[in-house]
Design goal:
heterodimer; A: mainly alpha; D-Maltodextrin-Binding Protein, domain 2; 2 domains; 4-stranded mixed sheet; two-stranded antiparallel ribbon; 18 helices; B: alpha/beta; Rossmann fold; 4-stranded antiparallel sheet
Amino acid sequence: MKTKSKIGTIIKHEYLSKIKSKGFIIGTILAPVGIIVIYGIIILVAVMSADQTTKKLAIVDYTERIGAMLVERDTSKFFLTDLTEAELNEKVLTGEIDGYLVMPADFAEKGAATVYTSGGGGLGFVTLIERNTKDIIVNLRLDEIGADESVKELVNRGISLSTMKVTQEGTQDDYSQVFAIMGYVMGFVIYGLMFTYGAFVMRGVIEEKANRIVEVLASSVKPFEIMMGKVIGIGAVGLTQVLFWIVLMGIFVSFGGSIAAGFMGTPDMATAGAEMQDQNAMIEMLNNISISPWLIVAFLFYFLAGYFIYSTLFAAVGSAVDQESDAAQLQIPVTLPIIIPIMFIANVMSNPDGTLAVVLSLIPFFTPILMIARIAATSVPIWQIALSVVLLAATFFACLYFAAKIYRIGILMYGKKPTFKDMVKWFKLAK
Amino acid sequence: MDIININSIKKTFGDYTAVDGVSFDVAQGTIFGLLGPNGAGKTTTIRMITNIIIPDEGKITIDGMKNGYDTQSLIGYLPEERGLYKKLKVIEQLKYFAQLKGVNAKDAEHTAMEWLVKLGAGGWENKKIQELSKGMQQKVQFIATILHDPKILILDEPFSGFDPINTEMLKSIILDMKSRGKTIILSTHVMSQVEQLCDDIVIINKGKIIVDGKVSEIKARYGEDTVIIEFDGDSSVIDEIADIKITDRSNHRIEFRLGANSPKASEILKDLVNKIDIIRFEKVQPSLHEIFITEVAKQKLGIKEATNEN
């Protein structure tokens, strides 16, 4: 009777018991909700500060035409009035209106007008009036000199610098800054995931050892299967979480962007402030940059590769100690190579095609973080990616070989806190 | 028929030899006592039988097969240190362990529920392990050991943590398993339980077997060399008897073993009758407890005695 491998049972157990845990569900949902909430607050603050007020402004119009045009732009804020200035002062003082704007007859020519307020209102209020009237007056002046539509269009277009990237396929929109930010974000996310999930594996191994569960497991299954089952099961949990986030992000980018744009793009706010235009540009940019499927695949690959390398090492550390507090010192050699690339990521990103970036990103322990950052930021030559894949695979098998040996002996060793020397001894002991 | 053959197995950890050439056979359908002081090599021996570790030398055959991962499912192992996931529900735990032994989830759940009821633990299935008392956890662990209906049960201190009622229940379950043809290896320090349950025993010390055989034969080997006296009066007279070894002493009861040069039991009785008020005087075989202590002590003195004889 040949017993079939039980690794599937272990994977399933590890996966389900983790994925059903409250901590995981909360973490998975709260992380993006948190990000969305923060993003939402930023947008809201921008909108609110631009929209400043529900302030109403009466317009005393001696030009007999500009006032009407201004009211037309935003009927919720501006209205025409025939009241005298003394009557208006009264209304300002009683708070019935927030202020009034006097447009002299030569407003169009001289461009000078006066706003009377109770003193509140702030800069945003004045900018709001300025911005709105300026457009009108510029158009009026152009009309007067008989400029045709194309000239008007030209003047109103304003200035916007866009950068273009020259590639073999011709010029393309270059969003290199955005891509660099994306590189950073992806590198940091992989960093966080490797740490979090590596620690899950380590904690799981320690729990099984401390509670002597591993003795029962080892009397049923090969130690290698126990370790791999745990590594794969928890890795699957990580993959689930990341895929969930990617899908969520996809939804947010494709709908959220236009929702936010629509939200900010309501007529009365379209011209409401410079920061709003920046926001619009940002959203437009986000809409234009579709994160390529290839980048997502690369992200998932480097995440998993990094996870598998580090989680086997974390498993080895976990197997060596009796309790989590003993692991602190032993895990330094494992955590250090995760932290080092983060210290270099700024250097790498400042010149993602430079020699330093290429060399660092090809060191297998640094690859998951630095290579994905480079891939997001620049076009990494295929040979470098291929080489990194080969090196990662080789490193993984080396780590697995090493970790499995330590694990096999470590899980049965209790008592004194092990040193690196002990671990080397175990490594030799395991045939 | 022997279900387990252990042939001069040896295991060293670095400089330390945990098991040094141990051999014994376990007959099918018997209860076998694997005894020895702490650190004698019992757990290492059990771990080799369960294939958790592999002997450096020697051979273990289980049910006619060389032991390995394939023979693991024939064995149910209750380790001395209990191992359960604290946050897992009882039923999930039992299902998981049974599945690792190759039972399908549905059968495992069904059998587990039956056993929970049988052990007076019905209704616990959805409790988490950490909510259970030590004795309750013990029951869950025991059920986990037998869920895959193994031919061989290895129970390391199965009674620890149990009250007398649960101890009796477990004893009757073990005897019932035996009557169903299961083979049980029992490792315990409580010698009275060994006397009640075991057919054969080995006593291991410092990695080597020092006593081996049927419980009845081992006791017979020592003969009726033990005297139990219950009395009223001054027990100091007993200390004057030549070449006896007092093994148990309380206010009104003394147990001692006769040496080569001690007077015959009948002469001791004659002598004592006049000095103290004797309520009971009995000549018996030594208890397993006494044999255990004697044999382990003998090995400790082994080197000394050898030099004395020269």
